[in-house]
Write a structure and sequence with these properties.
Elements lengths: L3 E4 L2 H12 L4 E3 L6 E5 L3 H11 L8 E3 L6 H4 L4 H10 L4 E6 L6 H4 L4 E5 L4 H10 L3 E2 L14 H8 L5 E4 L10 E5 L3 E6 L5 H5 L3 E4 L28 E6 L2 H10 L5 E5 L10 E4 L6 H17 L4 E5 L7 H11 L4 E3 L1
Parallel strand pairs: 1-8, 2-8, 4-6, 5-9, 10-11, 12-15, 12-16, 13-14, 13-15
Antiparallel strand pairs: 2-3, 3-7, 4-7, 5-6, 9-10
The structure holds adenosine monophosphate (AMP) and magnesium ion.
Length: 336
């Protein structure tokens, strides 16, 4: 199959919507990362997503909507969900809610909940409206690889596997959406993202799930199934290093060798030995989120065997960056 990479236009949106209506899958830009979309109501179309990604069938998909009126058709939300939707939609927040029977089992991996998000990227909203569908869409990478932050990254993973990718430019946020389980008067943070725990605390109690920062114990069930898989991982062995810029420089100088790459802010890199992987600006966690997946992919392009990542602060969106890095590093972390 030829994969067409088309800039977003009224014509390409129409073609993408027609493919979705015909049960095909399409790459779409969102403000978080690129997604691989299918008609959420069509189990055969949804099955194509799992095949193209090589995704385990017990990892549920997020359903994307463009209007609040679509929410009660898919889920049975408590009042708090409407309050949060008003504050953070359209945007990088996915709410896990009691599902309705209208959502097929293959979307929710058989769970009695469904994850729903209203993306803010104009092309994603336009595609949902043009198709008239709710779109099930996981990140557009092959399962296990870093999520795509550009259309070219998605093409590298999906070339020949899907008919079309809409190119809407690089993603603004760069990491996947915040996933929260919404209860009557509190939420549980299952995956940190662009909407931070502090943002949510303005509206309700926020409990951070253990799986956000710790590996699951043997036999423990994941509150968010996606978090249990090895993820975002380049071929190289990744180690996180936490400490000041000076301590990090000393550490990598002592551990440099051929095939060793360092992933650090642009301000730090000129002073560091090894293969350089730029990772945002110092003290600017938004820029580090935006560049995270491009940086992880860069490690492979450089043929790195070992990567030392200078870990950003774990506050705000930095928590989302840290959560993804932990999985890329299989939880290998050195605190200096
Ligand atoms: P992705 O679309 O690739 O960003 O992955 C979707 C993420 O949302 C995965 O980590 C899932 O585990 C999580 N998710 C989706 N639906 C649910 C749900 N009903 N319950 C818990 N987590 C969910
Ligand atoms: Mg994903």
């Amino acid at each position: 199959m030829e994969t067409a990479l088309l800039p977003v236009s009224p014509d390409s949106l129409q073609r993408a919507a027609a493919l979705l209506q015909a049960g095909q899958i399409v790459g779409m830009p969102t403000e978080t990362v690129y997604g691989l979309a299918a008609n959420a109501a069509d189990p055969e179309a949804v099955a194509r997503i799992f095949t193209a990604k090589g995704r385990p069938s017990d990892n549920p998909l997020i359903v994307h909507i463009a209007e609040l009126s679509a929410l009660p058709q898919l889920a049975d939300p408590p009042a708090l969900a409407y309050k949060l939707a008003k504050a953070f939609w359209p945007g990088a927040m996915t709410m896990v809610l009691p599902r309705r029977d209208t959502v097929p089992d293959c979307v929710t991996a058989g769970l009695d909940t469904v994850g729903i998000r209203m993306p803010s990227h104009p092309a994603a909203a336009a595609l949902i409206r043009e198709s008239g569908l709710a779109l099930a869409a996981p990140s557009g990478n092959r399962s296990g690889s870093p999520s795509p932050a550009t259309a070219a990254q998605m093409l590298a993973d999906m070339d020949g596997r899907i008919p079309m990718i809409l190119d809407g430019g690089p993603c603004e946020v760069g990491v996947e959406s915040t996933v929260i389980l919404v209860r009557e008067d509190s939420v549980r943070l299952l995956r940190p993202g662009g909407v931070t725990a502090d943002d949510l605390r303005e509206f309700c109690l926020v409990e951070v799930d253990d799986g956000v920062l710790h590996p699951l114990a043997d036999g423990e069930a994941a509150a968010s199934p996606g978090m249990k898989y090895r993820h975002y991982a380049p071929a190289a062995e990744v180690t996180l290093v936490t400490g000041t810029a000076e301590a990090f420089a000393e550490f990598v100088t002592a551990h440099t060798a051929s095939g060793v790459a360092v992933m650090a802010s642009r301000e730090e890199l000129p002073r560091l030995p090894g293969l350089h992987v730029p990772f945002g600006r110092q003290g600017d966690p938004e820029s580090q989120a935006r560049e995270l997946f491009t940086a992880l992919r860069r490690c492979d392009e450089l043929g790195a065997e070992t990567v030392y990542v200078h870990c950003p602060p774990k506050r705000g969106i930095g928590l989302a960056v840290y959560n993804r890095l932990l999985r890329a590093a299989a939880f290998r972390e050195i605190v200096l």
